[in-house]
Amino acid sequence: MLIKMTMLAFLGSVFPVILFNIDRRKIIWTGIAGAFGWIIYSIIFEITSSQVISSFWGAFAVNIYSEFMARKKKTPASMFYIPGIFPLVPGITAYSTISYIVENNFNDALNKGILTLSIGGAIAFGIMLSSTVVRFISKLKFKWSSN
């Protein structure tokens, strides 16, 4: 099951490349970002059973990979992490929220809505924190190399 989901995550990261007009030579690398993020998400989800914590670590891993690839391919990190987080986006929970609202099931809608916002916030925080960590390490590395 993990292999199938990883392949779908790979494809889910490859297809937005066309939408965002990213250089076609980077298609495979963006797919790997999504697959890597999904693998980390799956491992953490098995340990914690929390979609929010798993999404945070998945996004963190995608952005660390993206920062590394940005330096290697001399391109902005956003070329990798934007398509890379697509498999982590909580689409089904957002759909369920709206579905519950339409059915006048407001308790379940509130629960799913909070989960959707929590996952989205965790993804954003994972990207922000990993970018900060990479910049901090780069500054330390620069200071050590200049001494």
From TrEMBL:
**InterPro entries in alphabetical order:** ThrE_2 (IPR024528), ThrE_Dicarb/AminoAcid_Exp (IPR050539)
Give the transmembrane region(s).
Answer: 6-22, 27-45, 80-102, 114-137
Threonine/Serine exporter ThrE domain ranges (all copies): 7-133
Membrane-topology annotation of the record: Multi-pass membrane protein
Entry protein name: Threonine/serine exporter family protein
Would I find Transmembrane among this entry's keywords?
yes
Family, according to the entry, reads as follows: Belongs to the ThrE exporter (TC 2.A.79) family.
Q: What is the lineage of its organism?
A: Bacteria, Bacillati, Bacillota, Clostridia, Eubacteriales
Per the UniProt record, the source organism is Clostridium weizhouense
| Keywords linked to the UniProt accession | Cell inner membrane, Cell membrane, Membrane, Transmembrane, Transmembrane helix
Read off the Pfam families from this record.
ThrE_2 (PF12821)
Tell me yes or no: is Transmembrane helix among this UniProt entry's keywords: yes
